[in-house]
Write a structure and sequence with these properties.
Layout (H helix, E strand, L loop, with lengths): L6 E5 L2 H14 L5 E6 L15 H9 L3 H8 L2 E3 L1 E9 L2 E6 L12 H10 L11 H7 L2 E2 L10 E3 L2 H14 L3 E4 L2 E6 L6 E6 L4 E3 L2 E4 L6 H6 L4 E3 L8 E8 L8 E5 L3 E7 L3 E8 L6 H9 L11 E4 L3 E3 L3 E2 L2 E3 L5 E2 L7 H14 L8 H27 L7 H8 L4 H13 L12 H9 L16 H19 L3 E2 H9 L8
Parallel strand pairs: 1-2, 1-12, 2-8, 4-15, 12-21
Antiparallel strand pairs: 3-7, 4-5, 6-23, 9-10, 10-11, 13-19, 14-17, 14-18, 15-16, 16-17, 19-22, 20-21
Helix pairs in contact: 1-6, 1-9, 9-10
Length: 497
């Protein structure tokens, strides 16, 4: 492509489309002409209502006021995910967003904790993580110097509406209409324009595909290709329903493993989001509906709806003059609430790689390499929950225990089992989370780092006690979650409308 990018067309709204529009319009100032086309007649998946802490920094980058955002989206705070029945029936653990304990230059805190357990000096691993303790106690407050890591639960439809208003205030133009055809340039195969059902054509220099699983631009027009991961992640369906809230919202998501599925519960201020992710080879749509409705609290506010999907990723996130964002780029089930993180990653990475004068293939290739790395590591982390389990009560869980896994994950599991080490590679998202989940799933290392034995027993006891004491002290500063939310939002000036 020989000209500079000045005109961007975003195909599709929803969370992906309006997050993209918000970031480009805010951070690129008046340098771009941005148009977003969407149709009110086309629904969105709308179940991505739980996030991880990276969204906090995305909002800060855009200058979004947190109280205003929470008020507009009926949001609550999230400190982690409680996994129930994943290790085995009746065995639960909480994967929290914080750092557990204190590492040293040679090894992680888990090595000191393991020796402490052998000597009878250490408590449960989670006792040394503030976010874990706060989640279990249903407490939350903002602490100085980002002293508490947190994320959000929110209403996805309200979030898209909030970001639409934000984007339009920064100059984004919204066009109502359905995309009827994607028009390509005959010389290089790049996208020239989108033709709508009204016969109107939206031409642009660059196009961002936020059309969800339909992938109208990146796949149907550009034939980018798709790599399936369903052999590692066998769930291919979900049924979702919203219910009345019958209790104050807790600051964590619940993930409840069932016989051939897992159920989510996401507490908002005005309702609860519920869903069941299941494998159609092991469970029918009708039985999934029944199982979900039999395991909800509160009156249903919507009819259960079934969503079909295939786990995997597009072979290129960026192809020619088109970038895939959101479900058009691929799908990883929402077990660790990473969908919105991957949206923002592609947006922020695109801004870093934004073509100065023209699209250069070397930069496109590097963008795709980095995107592949990110999504593959998250993929491995999600597979970990299924593979490392003690459950053998159903055919589904027996398959998960016995299935082959990616070499990258097998290597990570082997290293942790044999040495207790978790090594971060490059810009890998999860670090402390790996050991939390592996320990929670029942994978205990065979040995700890020999450096730990150089610490006298009395010094180790003091070290562990000091960490736990600091956690206790900070925990005492936190308010009850719902009480803090009410106070935090009480003075909020909501956006008009």
């Amino acid at each position: 492509m020989s000209q500079a990018i000045k005109k961007i067309v975003i195909a599709g709204g929803g969370t992906a489309g309006w997050m993209t529009a918000a970031a480009l319009s805010k951070l690129m100032g008046g340098k771009l002409d941005i148009t977003l086309v969407e149709s009110e007649a086309i629904g969105t998946v709308g179940v991505g209502e739980a996030t991880i802490p990276t969204l906090v920094f995305f909002h800060r980058l855009l200058g979004i006021d947190e109280a205003e955002f929470l008020a507009a989206t009926q949001g609550t705070y999230k400190l982690g995910i409680r996994f129930e029945n994943w290790r085995d029936q009746g065995k639960d653990y909480l994967h929290a967003f914080g750092v557990t304990g204190q590492d040293c230059w040679a090894c992680g805190f888990q090595h000191f904790w393991m020796r402490g357990r052998q000597l009878g000096l250490a408590g449960d691993f989670g006792e040394y993580c503030l976010e874990r303790r706060a989640a279990e106690a249903h407490r939350f407050s903002h602490l100085p110097n980002n002293g508490l890591n947190y994320a959000f639960h929110f209403d996805a439809s309200l979030y898209a509406a909030y970001l639409r208003q934000f984007s339009e205030s920064n100059g984004v133009k919204r066009v109502e209409g359905k995309i009827d055809q994607v028009l390509l340039r005959p010389d290089n195969g790049h996208i020239r324009a989108l033709k709508l059902d009204s016969e109107r054509e939206l031409d642009g220099d660059f196009f961002i595909d936020c059309t969800g699983m339909r992938a109208l631009l990146i796949e149907k027009a550009l034939h980018t290709g798709f790599e399936s991961w369903s052999h590692w992640l066998p769930c291919d369906s979900a049924v979702a329903v919203q219910t009345e809230a019958v209790a104050p919202p807790v600051p964590f998501t619940r993930s409840i493993a069932r016989e051939s599925a897992w159920q989510w519960r996401i507490p908002l201020r005005h309702r609860v989001g519920n869903g069941l992710v299941y494998a159609s080879n092991y469970q029918s749509d009708e039985s999934a509906r029944e199982q979900l409705l039999d395991n909800i609290d509160g009156k249903p506010l919507t009819d259960p709806r079934v969503i079909k999907f295939q786990t995997g990723r597009r072979r290129k996130q960026w192809n020619k003059n088109c970038l895939a964002v959101g479900l058009s780029s691929g799908f990883l089930e929402p077990l660790e609430s990473t969908s919105i993180h991957l949206i923002q990653q592609n947006i922020v990475r695109f801004l870093r790689f934004f073509p100065q004068t023209e699209i250069r293939q070397a930069e496109v290739d590097e963008f795709n390499r980095q995107s592949d790395f990110d999504v593959e590591r998250i993929r491995d982390f999600i597979i970990l929950h299924y593979k490392v389990t003690e459950r053998q009560d159903t055919e589904f869980w027996r398959y998960c225990r016995q299935m082959d896994i990616p070499d990258s994950l097998a290597n990570k599991i082997d290293i942790f089992r044999e040495t207790g080490h978790v090594f971060r590679e490059g810009s890998e998202l999860f670090v402390d989370s790996w050991q939390q989940v592996m320990l929670g799933q029942g994978l205990m290392p065979e040995r700890y780092h020999p450096l730990v034995d150089t610490m006298p027993e009395s010094e180790l006891a003091e070290f562990l006690a000091q960490i736990k004491g600091n956690v206790d002290k900070n925990l005492a500063k936190l308010k009850e979650h719902n009480e803090y939310l009410d106070k935090f939002l009480s003075g909020t000036t909501r956006r008009a409308g």
